[in-house]
Amino acid sequence: MKRRYLVSAALAVISLVILLGIAFRSKGIDDFVDYMVIDKIVITNGANDEVITIKDEQSLAKVKEYMDNLKFRRKIGFSSGEYLYRMDLYYGMNIEIRFTFREDSVQIDNGSYTMSNLNDRSIEEFLDELKNK
To answer: Is 97 helix (H, G, I), strand (E, B) or coil?
Structure first.
């Protein structure tokens, strides 16, 4: 009887570890949205409320390329306070997904994530470059 209980407890722990591993794995933008349908991006600077609207295919492709190199890992709890940038991705008139970049995390719709940037420049540098072209 005791052995059966130990085996059941061990299986429960292993199942929990596997589920947590799946839930907290790193994700890319393709795990959140079908980027191919995105036809407009609106980026708002949290410091000065400056808005950049991107509609042309070349700039949309540059944002996609940059976003492909961001990796997100689910975070327990939410970050509050001011945001650095908010990025709304549209299909037609509808917001498909919203990324809210903060100092230490990013909120993607209603979930909070830590972010790894595999690009050679920060999001601020990338957006300045995009805005000045």
So the answer is: strand
